[in-house]
Amino acid sequence: MRNTTRHLFLAFVIVALAAISSGTAAAVTVTPHVPPVQSITPSDGAVVGIAHPVTVRFAAPVADRAGVERSVTVGTQAGSFSWNGDSELVWHPTGFLPANTTVTVKAGTARTQFSTGGGTTADADMSAHTFTVYVPGEAPRVIPASMGKPGRETPVGTFPVMEKFRTITFDSRTIGIPLSDPEGYLLTGEFAERLTSGGVFVHSAPWSVDQQGYSNVSHGCINLPPDDAQWYYNNVSVGDPVTVHW
């Protein structure tokens, strides 16, 4: 019996080697191990802006990142991936998502759907001191603005709106400026949209109205006149893009 088993094993090895040498061996497909999905953002049924990223949080650290990335699809849209730690994957769309569209997200065996809004975009020109808002179907609204002053310049790039606040407290200590410093401040802001985790916002700024449209005097935020800031707040969605440039 042992000799028979040994002969069968040797025969299998010979056949396998022959197949490899002749180029007829079948490819081996390895399915990546995808840990259970804890959550997907945007959540099922959410309506978001056209630049909103998709965040997938896994219940355990991911070892095979490349394999897990291949398991994630967001509609038919092209995009790129980044990781926040070992268990949070972020997908960023290439360009913008189509407006007024339902998007299906698949991550392993998890599946969810969200919808996009009308596609409001904004362009912040730091040289012209303008903030131009494009609402589909309407004429562009060109708003005088004041951005970050020298040494505190507003960052350049395209930023999806992260959060919206009807009122918010602005505290200079969050960007490293003590209240005792001549540059320090602690005040209530209105009609604010967060652009970065570092504290850059678009917001109403009645204290800099005289500079808006003429010079950049803020600590990095995009200052707008109160009435225009309220209008933008009412027309922008979380996930809509703001492009900042010179």
Automatic annotation (TrEMBL):
Gene3D superfamilies documented for this protein: 2.60.40.3710, L,D-transpeptidase catalytic domain-like
Xref: CDD domains: LDT_IgD_like_1, YkuD_like
Domain L,D-TPase catalytic: residue ranges: 120-245
Keyword Zinc found: no
Pathway(s) where this gene product acts: Cell wall biogenesis; peptidoglycan biosynthesis
Active site, per annotation: 203 (proton donor/acceptor), 221 (nucleophile)
Cellular component aspect of the GO annotation: extracellular region
Secretion signal, residue range per the UniProt entry: 1-27
Keywords linked to the UniProt accession: Acyltransferase, Cell shape, Cell wall biogenesis/degradation, Lipoprotein, Peptidoglycan synthesis, Signal, Transferase
InterPro entries in the record: Big_10, LD-transpeptidase, LD_TPept_cat_dom, Transpep_catalytic_dom
Gene Ontology molecular-function annotations: acyltransferase activity; peptidoglycan L,D-transpeptidase activity
GO process annotations (BP): cell wall organization; peptidoglycan-protein cross-linking; regulation of cell shape
One Pfam entry name: YkuD
Protein name (record): Lipoprotein-anchoring transpeptidase ErfK/SrfK
